[in-house]
Amino acid sequence: MSHEEDNTDRIPDSLIAELRKADEPDPLITAKVDRMVAHLAREQFSTRHSTRRQIAPGWLAVAATMVLAVFLFQTLDKPEIDATKIYADVDNSGQIDIADVLALARRNGQEISQAELDAFAMRVVSLAQNGETP
Amino acid sequence: MTRSFRWVVLFFMFSTSQTVADSPLRFANVDVFIDSVEPLAAWQLEFSASAGVMQVVGVESGDSKAFDGAPYYDREAVAQGRADHIVVADFSLEDESELPSGRILVTTLHLMLSGDDVPGFDTRLIVATSYQGKRLDAEISIEISDGREQ
Fold this sequence. Notes:
Largest sheet of chain B: 5 strands, antiparallel
Number of domains of chain A: 2
Number of domains of chain B: 1
Largest sheet of chain A: none
Oligomer: heterodimer
Number of helices of chain A: 5
Number of strands of chain B: 8
Radius of gyration of chain A: 41 Å
Shape of chain A: elongated
């Protein structure tokens, strides 16, 4: 027995078959096969596309409802701040100024939001209304 | 259009353009300080020009942590270029121990100056109050830190 034969005997048949298969040339994709694959792909994706379109109006309705709900919530929750209601000589100094805003902010038992304080302060410094008593 | 009216129009255009050309714009920064022995909780001041033509083009906060946000002022008037004077104010809800005292930089005003007159300014402290809301006997002063021609 030669040395080469000795080596061949040791390699399993399955491995030899796999190695032979690997040496074979790649299967040729003909133009016909290519067209068929492309056609199948187009069909597949067109089906997906139409499914998405069918679902979209439902999601759109949900999204629109959510946007409307948020808008209504914000509108109803935050009414426009009217500084005239709180624009007053809070500390009885005889003039309306930033000290009144501070006095209002420090006043206990009355819920005044930061936005209301800002509106009051902005009115105090307004060049059109500065120093005027309402 | 008559010949004489044409001359009047030409004269008016010439004199107007001369006035604009001879009136360079300058910019200045004015630091406004309030000097108070007691801690300052709220302040309001008025700033105007006593001479020259001035326009407030920007308002900055001072250097105190208790008044770290932008102070209150008529932003619309400044944005629209009609702030030939300004009222600036701010208040703080910090604890008394956090309020500043001494010489406090409360705001920096950015001014655009025009005209040939040497600018003069009036600064009036409308109110300064303590933590308890007591009116403080505080002093107000300014420092003009810049003035470039453009």
